[in-house]
Amino acid sequence: MHRVQLHYTLSKDAGNALIRNPLPELLQAVAEHGSISGAARALDLSYRHVWGALKRWEDQLGGELIIWGKGQSAQLSEFGAKLLWAERQAQARLAPQIAALNADLERAFAVAFDPNAHVLTLYASHDDALVALRTHAAQADTGALHLDIRFTGSVDAIRALNEGRCTLAGFHTVDKAGADSLTAQTYQPLLQPGLHKIIGFAQRTQGLIVAPGNPLALQSLQDVARTGARFLNRPLGTGTRVLLDDLLAQAGLEPARILGYELNEPSHTAIAQAVAAGAADVGMGIEVAARARGLDFVPLVHERYHLACLKASLDQPATLALRTLLQTAEWLAQMATLPGYSPLRCGEVLAMSRVLPWWEFTRKKRAPTSRKKP
Fold first, then answer.
1. What is the average per-residue pLDDT within 230-257?
2. How much is the pTM?
3. CB within 8 Å of 329: residues ≥ 6 apart
4. What does residue 94 show for φ and ψ, rounded to 5 degrees?
5. How far apart are CA 129 and CA 133, in angstroms?
6. What angle do CA 99, 101, 104 make, to 5 degrees?
7. 3-state secondary structure of 123
8. Which of 16, 48, 141, 191 is at 20 to 30 A from 296, Cα to Cα?
9. Tens digits of per-residue pLDDT, 82-137?
10. C-alpha span between 337 and 132 (Å, rounded)
11. pLDDT at residue 369, as a whole number
């Protein structure tokens, strides 16, 4: 049984990858360039180093990694291809946990090395724009802002906020959800006007992640049910699961009609990877996850991604730093480049009764004043 040991690098030029393994990187380079020399050039390593590393790994792992045909380019062996596939699968499935571990380490060392840095703890529904924001915030010219992001379901994120485990909670809802919708029933008990404040962040597109070319011609959830397409869901407590159940109710579809409704993956990234690997035909997710893996995407709905905080923390230095950063031209331009995203009142404090219009506020009638007769 081969065992996995993790380690991390503490360096100013460690790069943006959350987790790295030199063997899959080398195998990927060989697959792309078709030779040891091409892989060595791409990785800025010597031919001798790459050749020796491959031989050492073959000895340690007990299998051939590269094969050569006479007069042909170098190719991965079946064993090498499976190793590369396994590493991709693991990273896709564990992306939220890897990101959380990376955030924990960065937070600790930010405090150790920069006494003036702001650290903001954020529990949030999985979102690629927040991943980009974390990198952008740490590099911003206005001063380091370290976002300690823990990806979890939308419901769990707001509960963490209410229990004092974080300063901000990220969650998403469709625009103008009805008072009788599952969206309203889920979030209304967790949020209280006057206690919570909403900070605008983004509009993003959710829909069906499908294989390239959309071979089953899926255009709606009705098509998913009709064709018996193999579906992957998100877990209970996630905003996407709430959204899906609302959309099924609107379409008059019972969950049992969706093949695979009970199966779930922990993130949009993991769903996209499963579709890319052929383990499922379709899943519910965001466009950027589909495009990143060369998949097709069928938009179903636009939704708002919100950041919630307690009123008491709205003007704390770290929260103010984030609100300021969110409104900079640099960040707005970067978000607009993400497929399926657009900035929406980014960094602005919004009236909860307008963006989440589920509460009805009634004004107290004034008691009639009595007038004395002259």
1. 96
2. 0.69
3. none
4. -100, 10
5. 6
6. 110
7. strand
8. 16
9. 998 988 888 888 888 888 888 788 767 766 676 677 889 999 999 999 999 999 99
10. 11
11. 54
CB 169 within 8 A of CB 122: yes
| Distance between CA atoms of residues 367 and 174, nearest Å | 40
Q: What average pLDDT does range 203-224 have in this prediction?
A: 98
Q: What's phi and psi for 140, nearest 5 deg?
A: -65, 145
CA dihedral (106, 109, 111, 115) positive or negative: negative
Cβ partners under 8 Å of residue 136, min gap 6: 325, 330, 331, 334
Both structure tokens of 244: 């899906």
Token pair 């991390």: residue: 8
DSSP 306: E
Strands annotated E in 175-259: 196-210, 231-232
Q: What's 147's DSSP letter?
A: E
Residues 6+ apart with CB under 8 A from 176: 357
| 313 phi, psi to nearest 5 deg | -100, 0
Residue 227, number of CB atoms within 10 A of its CB: 14
